[in-house]
Amino acid sequence: MLQKLLDVRDVLSFKIEELGCALKDHYKIEEFSSVSLPAQEPVTVLGQIGCDSNGKLNAKSVVMEGDLEHSSGMHVPMDLSELKEYSLFPGQVVAVEGLNSTGRRLIASRIFEGVPLPFFNAIDSTKEEVLGDLKQQMILVACGPYTTSDSITYDPMMDLIEIIKKDQPDVCILLGPFLDAKHEQVENCQLTEPFEVIFNRCLKGIIEGTQSSGSHLIFVPSLRDVHHEFVYPQPPFSCYSLSKEEKQRVHFVSEPCMLNINGVTFGLTSTDILFHMGAEEISSSSGGSDRFSRILKHILTQRSYYPLYPPAEEVNIDYESFQSFAQMTVRPDVFIVPSELRYFIKDVIGCICMNPGRLTKGQVGGTYGRLYIRRMAVREEHQSPCIAAQVVKI
To answer: What value, to the nearest 5°, has the Cα angle with vertex 246 and ends 243 and 250?
Structure first.
């Protein structure tokens, strides 16, 4: 989309400056130096990781792009040969300690990675709110497509509706795509009705089919929803009109978003950031290292739902909205991050991260997720509200 480069630069510079302050305070760094200033003693510089070419990042192509305040946006190649362990991706904001004797090459000896945000502090709530309702709740999480690749009849979605009616979860989080842009009949222009008509019929089926369960429904759009705005962050769905009764339990939210469900903070995104970052990340480790955990930790410590820059070709970022709607304000208790990669549930720096998988895989059924949560009474230390979690085959 059309955006002024200066506006994009301002957003990226603000991100570097904000994370730089957190790094400086956490690691007790005295001051940052310029990436291009020759120094015979080790210095610490602030900036973001970049690549010196149009190809993928590798250990020989890493560039340190300095911040505006200290480095005037200049960049230098970064030598990783002295590091025993590292995990880097384009757009990652880091502080690097190293030697830059000529001003033209930074030999890194230590990388200061991001600092996670604090959890939501329930102590700030009133005593009645905090101690009022501590009962266990079930959260069902499903991610589209909701049709098989050879049909548009939404049979897998009907199976999910039957599960919702049977299990009666308190909240159902349903992430797009609901009408997948990658579906064969969409790509080949074989549909005989407008996209909005098919989507509205899909939503009507879900809302009316789950009415007896009493479950709250949360709809999260996807960049693959062919009828919806193709921009990140995405606004909520707006083409479906809810009745007065439906508004009590049906909620349309943006992509990405953060929700507070009975005192438990949920971070939600339908964009496949795991796949995008997994294709760009480089790492070196002396022991066994879990790639999913590394990437999830990067997302949480970079405090952004999409920290990769430049983004994948299929992600159309509006950087004016990005700063307001795609940044984390607190560390979520639960982070829902669907992906084409294998489903999982992981505890990453105190946050329960779930990839529920897709409801359909080609012409066969896929998986969905179930969470059991209970808000804990107020304590000084953080306790995970997630009692149990599972990924279930449909």
So the answer is: 130
> Which residues, listed in sequence order, are joined to residue 143 by a DSSP beta bridge?
175
Residue 353 has pLDDT above 90, yes or no: yes
Percent of residues in the chain assigned helix, strand, coil, to nearest 5: 25, 30, 45
Render pLDDT for 15-49 as a digit per residue (tens, 0 to 9).
999 999 999 999 999 999 999 999 999 999 999 99
Task: Identify the CA nearest to 47 among candidates 100, 99, 112.
Answer: 112
Query: Alpha helix (H) ranges present in the chain?
Result: 5-26, 68-71, 127-132, 155-167, 184-187, 195-209, 273-280, 291-302, 319-325
Report d(CA 227, CA 261) in Å as an integer.
Answer: 28
Bridge partners of residue 346, in order along the sequence: 353
Q: What is the DSSP string of 147-183?
A: S-TT--S-HHHHHHHHHHHHH--SEEEEESPSSBTTS
CB-based burial of residue 272 (10 Å sphere; 0-12 exposed, 13-18 middle, 19+ buried)? buried
Please, which pLDDT band fits residue 378 given cuts at 50, 70 and 90?
low
Give the count of beta carbons closer than 10 Å to the beta carbon of residue 132: 12
How far is residue 58's CA from residue 392's CA, in Å, rounded to a whole number?
A: 37
From residue 84, alpha-carbon distances to 39, 80, 292 in Å are 23, 9, 20
- pLDDT tens digits, one per residue of 53-103: 878 899 999 999 999 999 999 999 999 999 999 999 999 999 999 999 999
What does the pLDDT read at residue 218? 97
Distances (CA, A) of 140 to 38, 144, 170, 222, 247: 56, 13, 8, 18, 19
Region for 91 from its dihedrals, namely left if φ exceeds 0, alpha if ψ lies in -120 to 50, beta otherwise: left
